[in-house]
Structure formats: C-alpha cells, structure tokens
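ok so for the tutorial part 2 we go from a plain amino acid sequence to predicted structure tokens. step 1 is just haveing the sequence, like this:
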Amino acid sequence: MSYDLCLHVDANDPALLAFAFVNALNYMNGLPGKEFELVLVANGPAVKLFVPAQAELQKTAEELMARGLKLRLCKNALDANKMTAADLWPGCEVVPAGLVEIVELQNRGFAYIRPYPRHFCPLPAPSFRQRTTQTRPSPFRQGMVMCDLPSCKDRDSRDTACPFRACAPERSGPPAWRAVLWFASLRRSSD
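step 2 — the prediction. this is what the tokens look like for a chain of 191 residues:
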C-alpha cells in the first residue's frame, strides 16, 4: 500500500496554508516508520504566500521540509503574479504547471487532498434570492448561519451566507460533505 500524498493549496490565505502544514505534520506523525513521499503543490494566488515576508509560515515549512515535505509551486501562477523563483523561500521547487504536477503525482499513485479548515469559505455563496425562491424545500437550507471569520462577518447577511455552514448544525459533517450539500442545493435552486 502506498502512503504517498499530494496536498493542494490554491488560495492566498495564510490560515489555509498553516492548516495544510498542520495536515502535513499530522500525516507525518501518523505514519511512524512508514516510507512515503509528501508533496504540497501550490498554484493560483497561493504562490504569494511562499515569500520571506511570511516568516512564521516559512519557519514551519522549513521544519516540515527537514522531515521530507516537498513544496512545488506553479510557474504559470508565479508568472501571473509577476514573481520569480528568487522571490520564494529556499527549498521551493518550481514546476511548469501546478495542475499538471498534481495529475502526474496522482498517476504515480499519490492520494490527493485539498485541505480546508472548517470555517474557510473558498467559494461564493448563493445570493439571498437563490435561497428564498426555491421551488422545493431543502433541508440543507435550514439553520443558515454566518460563520465567525472576518470574511463572512463583513458580508451582508441578507445577500450571502457562508456555503460551508449552509447545512443545519445537526447535519454538519466534514467540509467536503458540506460542500457537496451546498452544490446539491444550488442545483435544486436552479431547476
């Protein structure tokens, strides 16, 4: 059995990268004595986080890289953000395309995980009109609450709500499950 793992980060959010690093550390600690490769691939706006200005993240990354974590950043994203390899932390590898790297790792047998903390909101929320004009009642729309992150607190609660808190509290599950519920409810509202 292969324990090789690819973590994927694509948002310019230090909390998200810190969460991915916690995932990496927990993964390493959970497999004592096992041989595996652990690669974190960053693309899109996330490449802006791998600069010396993010000293706390850099320190954590260096500790993880010393234990075997590989950081691979998308050259396309670097170009789009007017960055070069010289702008990055030491030890970061630049790959031609982050998504191609992820596919190649998966073809080599790597598992894929895109870590998101429970309260992280990477997607636009449905509009108030979409939530209130459904033709069929949806159990996933009950108990809509705003999450406590500044990105959600600043939203107008009449217009948007955090998509990952869209299910009633008693139906909460892992973030991926809440995302599936949210997408399913969007599909219903557009019928």
